[in-house]
Amino acid sequence: MRIVTLAAAQLGPIQRAESRQHVVARMLELMDQAKAKGATMILYPELALTTFFPRWYMEDQAEVDAWFEREMPNAATLPLFERAKEYGMAMSFGYAELTPEGRHFNTCILVDRTGKIVGKYRKTHLPGHSEFDTSRAFQHLEKRYFEPGDTGFPVWRTEGGLFGMCICNDRRWPETYRVMGLQGVEMVLLGYNTPSVNSQKADEGPEKRLFHNRLSVQAGAYQNSTWVAAVAKAGNEDGFPLIGGSLIVDPNGEIVAEATTEDDELLVHACDLDATKFGKATIFDFARHRRIEHYGRITAQ
Ligand code: CDT
Known about the structure:
Nitrilase/N-carbamoyl-D-aminoacid amidohydrolase; 24% helix; globular; Aliph_Amidase/BUP; N-carbamoyl-D-amino-acid hydrolase; C-N_Hydrolase; hydrolase; hydrolase activity, acting on carbon-nitrogen (but not peptide) bonds, in linear amides
């Protein structure tokens, strides 16, 4: 057995006025709980340090850039790195990244138990739109504030296994998991901020959105025989609700832990990475069973 005791650390709402320091204090509280439960790795959501700012329309680039991190770790996040290292706990969280070249990405990192950043992923599938859209009940301006990621979907060998990352909307795309699956991924880590209602379809509410969340994550896990952990930022941010429903899914596609609140909430599960082996050697032995001669359209325009 190769056990990674994973803590999926759901965050409740973060209001627009809430400081990074206050959010980091909440994250540290969850990390303390994770340590007490024997976790060796902790996963936090997409854009974990701030409110989901892409719902706000901004024209002033300085105002936009204030939501971004210019370095990692920085003064606000250093306590996370220090505590995780003290606990010997690996860690992953999402944040808005502003590079020295002035590029903007929706990013997440994987930090090993010694505090070293061993992996960085930049969100590929950016949902939403880039201009103010009067037809929507609320805005989702990821295409305005970020450029599509330039990393692809690598996997990293660390903590005794093969880990991959993706972010929120990426989880709805089978290609996301398959590209990592083809590299032998054993655990996919992802965070999300998903509005509880569809801004363009009033009859699509939280039940349907939670169903699509489970469906995407369970299918990705099963079809690639990998663990997948998906962790929400949940609850009501300044009047805009986000679903909870954080979950850990095993390589059979079965849910082994699921959040019940829309607040800060910790799920802990001992994930055996060796449980990925059976599916990878049988029904999803890609080398034996894939028929790539029929898959060309997937990468054609
Ligand atoms: N953050 C993020 O990617 N949210 C999207 C909302 C889609 S609706 C524009 C998601 O796929 O959950």
